[in-house]
Specification:
3 domains; WH-like_DNA-bd_sf; DNA-binding; transcription regulation; DNA binding; Arc Repressor Mutant, subunit A; Transcriptional regulator; about 350 residues; four-stranded mixed beta sheet; alpha/beta; about 15% strand
Length: about 350
């Protein structure tokens, strides 16, 4: 993730054109709190960049994943590791929060030369030695950009594609749990729960004190009524990152369940763990409802008869594991906090 440029001459940090940064304090207005939203799905380019950073971080939780990934990562992906360090503070143009990989990669490849040049100059100003091919990126050299595109595609094929179902499952579970928390405890408690030790001081959310990593990058980021979109990541385990893009301002934070726990073969799969209690089909229905779905969705995704879906959802509601809400002719089902705890072991 790229570091945001800050105006250190003012108390309030002024964001540059776009990018990501560690921010000790977020300043909300009442309008901002009304405009807090959750992303609908993970952003592939953001997750890919964070995966490259995780590959180089010393987090022991990711150690088995790092060993497996290093063995399978092709040499063609190497240039991406040369651009993204363990801190994740690489060039800002590498990780737009686009909803699809192709859309995100198109955004990377179409970055204006002036912005590429400025970002590479910023990255290399920190003491990293520029490589010949990265210097050519700033000149829009065709071969250099083909190297970068090949590196992104190779890294995606090795790190993202095999794990994408788990990435999406972790994202959906995290989002569902936070929305339940929002309904039960309100927006201030939900936002304060995104980082260990986070706390409110008036309308400012403290995400890290002066002794935390990145505290010098900016004193405060004021949202000024534009709101913010929450984007959980199963690869990131550091402090929340704030980034402003044409699509809006995003807060990337670590999902409660990181990828290694989703990926751990010793961790019981939810339907298998619950099958003795609920039955195989009912457990599968419960797992699907980590993300809200209609009865028609369940019929299509699980290959069940409509009457069977009705029977299973009724039983799950009676056990207070799911809820149902009618919207016109459709009935939307979703997990309750109890259902989420049974599936993923999330805290109450």
């Amino acid at each position: 993730m790229g570091v945001r440029a800050w105006d250190t001459h003012s108390v309030r940090a002024r964001p540059n054109r776009r990018g990501w940064g560690l921010v000790p304090r977020l300043r909300f207005t009442a309008e901002d709190l009304l405009r807090v939203t959750f992303a609908d799905e993970p952003a592939p380019m953001v997750e890919l960049t964070l995966a490259v950073a995780a590959l180089q971080r010393s987090d022991p939780l990711f150690a088995p994943w790092r060993r497996r990934t290093v063995r399978t990562l092709p040499r063609s992906a190497g240039p991406l590791r040369e651009l993204v360090p363990a801190t994740g503070k690489g060039p800002l143009f590498l990780d737009p929060p686009a909803r699809g990989f192709d859309e995100g990669l198109d955004g990377v490849l179409s970055t204006p030369a002036r912005f590429v040049r400025a970002e590479l100059r910023r990255v290399h100003a920190r003491g990293t030695r520029p490589l010949p091919w990265t210097r050519l990126l700033a000149d829009r050299d065709g071969e250099a950009w083909r190297i970068l595109e090949a590196a992104v595609r190779a890294a995606r094929a090795t790190m993202l594609e095999p794990a994408w179902d788990r990435v999406r499952a972790g994202f959906d579970a995290e989002r569902a749990w936070r929305l339940q928390q929002l309904a039960r405890q309100g927006i201030r408690t939900t936002l304060a729960g995104l980082a260990p030790g986070a706390r409110w001081h008036g309308t400012a959310l403290e995400l890290g004190g002066a002794d935390t990593e990145g505290a010098a990058e900016g004193l405060e980021f004021a949202l000024d009524g534009q709101g913010i979109t929450l984007l959980p990541s199963v690869f990131w385990t550091g402090r929340p990152l704030v980034g402003t893009y044409p699509q809006g301002t995003f807060l990337v934070y670590p999902a409660v369940t990181p990828l290694p726990l989703l990926d751990d073969p010793g961790r019981p799969h939810a339907p298998t763990a619950l099958v003795a209690l609920l039955g195989r089909t009912r457990a599968a229905v419960l797992e699907c409802l980590v993300q809200p779905r209609t009865s028609t969705d369940l019929v299509r995704e699980l290959g069940l008869a409509k009457s069977s879906v009705s029977e299973h959802t009724k039983a799950l509601r009676a056990a207070r594991l799911t809820t149902a809400q009618r919207d016109g002719k459709a009935v939307w089902h979703s997990c309750t906090p109890l259902g989420l705890e049974l599936l993923g072991g999330f805290p109450a």
